[in-house]
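A quick word before the example. In earlier lectures we treated sequence and structure as two separate objects. From today on, think of them as two lines of the same record. Here is Imidazolonepropionase written that way.
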Amino acid sequence: MTSTLLTGIGELVTNDRPDERSDDPLGVRRDAALVVEGSRVAWIGPAASAPAADEVVDAGGRAVVPGFVDSHSHLVFAGDRAEEFAARMAGTPYAAGGIRTTVAATRAATDEQLTSHVARLVAEMLRQGTTTVEIKSGYGLSVHDEARSLAVARQFTEETTFLGAHVVPADTDAAAYVDLVTGPMLEACAPHARWVDAFCERGAFDADQARAVLTAGAAAGLRGRLHANQLGPGPGVALACELGLLAVDHCTYLSDDDVAALRDSGTIATLLPGVEFSTRQPYPDARALLDAGVRVALASDCNPGSCFTSSLPLCIALAVREMGMTPAEALHAATAGGAAALGLTDVGRLTVGARADLVLLDAPSYLHLAYRPGVPLVAGVWQGGRPV
Ligand code: NIG
Ligand code: FE
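And the structure line, produced from the sequence above:
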């Protein structure tokens, strides 16, 4: 097995908190080195005492952070909605109904077109440091189109999510559609998915419908996650906490009871600030969540409607500038937080035995991720121990 020594790391973010009481959640080490063997991290320590290795890479005093873990994306689609975005910037509010425009384009695309489009977006993410990505279906909304969307997604990640309950397709009865999602569509999709999700929001699915989808998904072996409280207050976050889901996503409009439920259940609030940036809605109050002891993740929500960015560095910068997170909290949420939201323990951290997914920044410190928004700071990415 080939070993590589990455040395001269001015600042290494491990996410290995020295101890529970430490105020450094990032486990930062200075003047560090790291040895990769095969696909894993084999050694971490001071550069001065690094062991020999087959190859040596000098980071030149720059910062190294764990690869970003994007726990929420909708990459399987065709077409775009740039006109809708332009109209929104001119004052038309965001409405979930635009999803149906993308459904029509996605149904009309071939498997090859969908696959090459996802490949392009995954490569775009990788260039920006995302080494683990979750991908949802949700623009097919028929048994055939949801199943093929997931089969496409599965070529790129094991973290695939069945989102047949995205919206009710045009000219379809809602109750009949929920029966389809919880019956034949779930049966066709479950073999390609690890997770099941629903859009619990006024204009999409109510709490009873979302509960039915999550319960049926669980019976088919899929773990649940939920889109909730994005466009207004609602029952979704409470439902996610009651069901003990690992993560509930958006969390823009929360009541005090929702915050208490998140804290008590341990359900992770995944915040998606690119959405608020692109829809001009208020940002979620990350500070209040963190101060209440809620676990927080940051993800892109990359999709053609509410947020067409694949950039976690942008999301980190927005979380710091607009949501009251410290740069350390934001980076932690986009790495260890995303991993926790997917139930993964070997990514989102750089510790011995973890997958060697790491990002070399063209900067002396991770602080620059928030400090220099919009600047392409990712100078190198290793995924599974290999430079990409
Ligand atoms: O997560 N909230 C629902 N779904 C997507 C938006 C999809 C779209 O507008 O196409 C989201 O924001
Ligand atoms: Fe989403």
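Notice the following. Residues 74, 96, 98-99, 102, 199, 227, 230, 275, 301, 303-306 surround N-(iminomethyl)-L-glutamic acid (ligand 1) (CB under 6 Å). We will return to this example when we discuss secondary structure assignment.
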